[in-house]
Amino acid sequence: MKAINTSSYGGPEVLTFSELPDPKVAPDSVLVRVKAAGVNPVDWKIVAGYLDGIMDTHFPLVPGWDVAGVVEAVGADAEEYEVGDEVIGYVRKDAVQHGTFAELVAAPVRTLAPKPASLSWQQAAGLPLAGLTAYQSIERVAVRAGEVVLVHAAAGGVGSLGVQIAVARGARVIGTAGERNHDFLRSLGAEPVTYGDGLADRVRALAPEGVDAALDFVGGGAVDVSQEVLKDRSRVVSIADGEVGAKGGHMVWVRPDSAGLAALGALADAGKLTVPIDAVFPLAEAAEAFRLSMAGRARGKIVLEV
Known about the structure:
This protein has 306 residues and is of the alpha/beta class. The chain has two domains: 2-127 and 275-305, Medium-chain alcohol dehydrogenases, catalytic domain (Quinone Oxidoreductase, Chain A, domain 1, Alpha-Beta Complex), CATH 3.90.180.10; 130-251, NAD(P)-binding Rossmann-like Domain (Rossmann fold, 3-Layer(aba) Sandwich), CATH 3.40.50.720. The chain contains nine helices and 17 strands. It is globular, with a radius of gyration of 19 Å. InterPro entries: ADH-like_N (IPR013154), Chloroplast_QOR (IPR052733), ER (IPR020843), GroES-like_sf (IPR011032), NAD(P)-bd_dom_sf (IPR036291). This is Oxidoreductase. Residues 10-304 form the Enoyl reductase (ER) domain. It holds the Pfam family ADH_zinc_N_2.
């Protein structure tokens, strides 16, 4: 198979597009013919070596954890799927090596769910990691109908999905973003506020009694600002602030979850969730996709088309 891979840590320049052996398929896994793969900030951070202290990495390394594709072969104990099934997956394994930026990926069934019929291949590939991150964050702080939720980086890949999931639960959503993305947030059902100095005051102007829950998808002091406006300081979750636990909040490191993926798919097929796409690159141009992700200004998801 052809795959994006690297034999050393580094920046986008270390990525190559070349032939590698087809993956082996374990009994609890299926072989997926990849149609598209989502690009997430964690992908270039892995290639840069930033996760070396917490995850075993083996070279040659194929990056990528998001996938949408078609089942091509089924392991001996993978009865959930048949050849020809269309699936999505957050294919994070215990060690980093055999990722989704390839023509084929072996995916444990615990990482997969049926592809939502209403989403394109590109949209479906952008859903798993970002969607599960948002979904599990919302679950962690138990967002309920009628509550006010503050979402930081609301126009990004995770944030735009978090806004939609919270709105689908009946919450009122206030989302932070630059002014160029305010109309975009309104289209998702959020009330936009500009991030930066004075954010707490701008949030209080919209919610004088405070907010019920806060989702930090950006870091950089968002937890501290959130706790200035939260009714209950413990109802903040972060994917970016390693000190959030010490501050009384919650950290989320997204986990593979078939049931969660299926719930996201059901929201999509009910017309309550879509996946905004910022850019689509051919697989061979993964380095350019990394550079766009590293710039931190994507509106929605970046996807590789295989």
